[in-house]
Design brief:
- This protein has helices at 7-34, 41-52, 67-77, 94-97, 131-143, 178-181, 195-206, 218-228, 235-249, 269-285, 293-304, 312-316, 321-331, 340-345; strands at residues 57-60, 82-86, 98-103, 108-113, 120-124, 145-148, 151-154, 160-165, 186-189, 263-265, 309-310.
- The protein folds into two domains: 1-227, 3-Layer(aba) Sandwich (Rossmann fold), CATH 3.40.50; 231-346, Helicase, Ruva Protein, domain 3 (Orthogonal Bundle).
- β3 (98-103) and β4 (108-113) form a beta hairpin.
- α1 crosses α3 (67-77), α2 (41-52) crosses α10 (269-285) and α9 packs parallel to α11 (293-304).
- It is built from 14 helices and eleven strands.
- It has 346 residues and is of the alpha/beta class.
- The strands form four sheets. A five-stranded parallel beta sheet has the order 2-5-8-1-9. A two-stranded antiparallel ribbon has the order 3-4. Strands 6-7 form a two-stranded antiparallel sheet.
- This is AAA family ATPase.
């Protein structure tokens, strides 16, 4: 039977072609960003996954690892607007979302929109501002809108918040509210570059400046996001994601009875959603129109590490969220049944 005679095969072939085209565009975007940003391939991949899945990133790393440069360069490559907010203890919510300003000449109030009205927003050292400021981001992160004096204002689409934390400095910092932490799709740990990468970094900094070229626009990015939502996800993958998240809440049900005393709170259902949405985006990034178990397992540490709260006993034993998640991933088997996309091409 030919592809033309089988609607399922024809649809599968069209989806594969569309995924390949999208993957090629994403590769062009990443290549252009890498002309400016050296190394950090995994971090760049996670930024693109968050962008395609319409999620937000919490990034932890020491200063000087090109976190700001990465987001600013990505904004240039996709012709999007970029804003950076330096969080400080004296920041107030109006500094983020905007406020109403009284005009003495006209006697009228006008609305001044804050820096959250951008395609890519960098919240630098987010844990240096008090909870009331951090909470001001909640509505805009979840609803993509802010309310000023009873009037709702939509932020531009696409919209990505990337917040950074410094892991080596705790003086003058505030813990993020759990409700806000859960709004971040992933928490990504950024490490130092290798010696070879750092050599290239120094060479580029002391050499002629490199300007990134625009490879797409916000409309093209919106198309990529829509295409990511068309990536096929087998029900067994959803079950796998749900079991992984469930293991963080009730590890005894998954053969990890000894882990129960080390965990105070597990991940919320938002983690299961983010695992699947992220797997779709990662599949598209890798040129596929269907997600695989590897896509879910690759993102699981990033999606779960900030959602697992260890008990005092776990901390005293020297455990880390990543170590706990690794044990759970080894205890929860990935699906092995035939995927639907394999049935279509069989």
């Amino acid at each position: 039977m030919s592809i033309e005679d089988n609607p399922n095969l024809s649809a599968s072939a069209d989806a594969a072609a569309a995924a390949a085209n999208c993957s090629a565009l994403v590769e062009q975007i990443l290549y252009e960003v890498k002309r400016v940003v050296v190394g950090q391939d995994r971090f760049l991949e996670r930024v693109m996954v968050a962008m395609l899945a319409e999620g937000h990133l919490l990034v932890e790393g020491v200063p000087g690892l090109a976190k700001t440069l990465t987001v600013k360069t990505l904004a240039d490559v996709v012709r999007g607007s970029f804003k950076r907010i330096q969080f400080t203890p004296d920041l107030v919510p109006a500094d983020l979302v905007g406020t109403r300003i009284y005009n003495q000449k006209t006697g009228d109030f006008s609305t001044s929109l804050g820096p959250v009205f951008a395609n890519l927003l960098l919240a630098d050292e987010i844990n240096r501002a008090p909870a009331k400021v951090q909470s001001a981001l909640l509505e805009v992160m979840q609803e993509r809108q802010v309310t000023i004096a009873g009037v709702t204002h939509k932020v531009p689409r696409p919209f990505l918040v990337m917040a950074t934390q410094n892991p080596i400095e705790t003086e003058g910092t505030y813990p993020l509210p759990e409700a806000q932490v859960d709004r971040f799709m992933m928490k990504v740990l950024v490490d130092y570059p290798t010696d070879e990468e750092e050599f290239v970094i120094v060479e580029r900094v002391i050499g002629p400046a490199i300007a990134a070229s625009a490879m797409a626009d916000t409309e093209g990015l919106a198309h990529l996001q829509a295409q990511a939502r068309q990536v096929y996800v087998d029900p067994s993958l959803i079950q796998y994601a749900v079991r992984l998240v469930s293991a963080t809440r009730t590890p005894e049900r998954h053969g990890l009875k000894d882990m129960r005393r080390f965990i105070t709170y597990g991940a919320s259902p938002r983690a299961s959603i983010n695992l699947i949405e992220g797997a779709r985006a990662l599949a598209l990034l890798r040129g596929r129109s269907y997600a695989l178990p590897d896509d879910v397992s690759a993102l699981a540490p990033d999606v779960l590490r900030h959602r697992v709260t260890l008990s005092y006993e776990g901390l005293s034993e020297g455990l880390t969220p990543d170590g706990v998640i690794d044990r759970m991933m080894r205890a929860v088997p990935a699906p092995t049944k035939v995927m639907e996309h394999e049935k279509l091409v069989a």
